[in-house]
Structures are given as structure tokens and as C-alpha cells.
């Protein structure tokens, strides 16, 4: 029974095709969900040094409100670091003026769009809550309002 008769070539191709389609589609779906995740986000100063790399802290500028009713943070630039499905880090830079908040998107794990790419951030990890609210385009939830490393 086993090993005595060979599976026809058409059967082998069918099994291989089904396996490739199944594994390939699940990998693509996983990439769709994981690729927007931001591992590191840093503000870029005029000198090219990003906040967090040298521990320097920038004072928050006083600005008017944007179309979402939140403080406008015009001119600020950011460098974000994400990974692709193979674990290769990708770095992208964008201005806060390019950010399009996506609070009601149907795509999973997407917070905003900037520079032609989608991004997902976890709000409870960000210290700058005004920036977080601008990126998300909505009121902050209770767990997002707490500062990082707070006791409660």
C-alpha cells in the first residue's frame, strides 16, 4: 500500500499548490497586520539628532488648533522604525503635517497614515500625549492617558 504506488504528477502539483497558496496567503495576511507596527518613533531636530538617541528633551511649542480641534504641531519631523516580515528594519521620516489620522479605519492595526505608509502605535507607551492625540485623531482612552512607567 504505502510506497508501492506513486502519486500522479497532477496530484503532486495539486497538493503542492494548495500548500503554497495556504502558507503564502497566511504570510501575506500576517505581514498586512504586522508591517504598520512602529517599534521606535523619534523626533528629528534641525541638526538631525532624534529625540531619545541622546536623551535631550524638546520643549512643546505653542500652536493653534488643527482641523481635529487639537493643538497644531506644524513643522515637527519624525523618524519611525518598523520591520518587514523578514525582520529587516525599515526607517521612514515624515512631517507631522503629512499625518492623516485613521480612527475609524477597517484595516487592523492602523493608527494613522503618513508619507504614503500606514502606521500603528501603542498609545500607552508615548509620553507626549498631545502628539499621541494628534496622531490618533480622537480622544485618548483611559489607558492611553497614563504616562509610561506610572504606578497605576
UniProtKB/TrEMBL annotation:
The keyword Transmembrane helix applies. The chain crosses the membrane at residues 12-34. GO terms for cellular component: mitochondrial membrane. It comes from the Eukaryota. Keywords: Membrane, Transmembrane, Transmembrane helix. GO terms for biological process: mitochondrial proton-transporting ATP synthase complex assembly. This is Uncharacterized protein. It comes from Ectocarpus siliculosus.
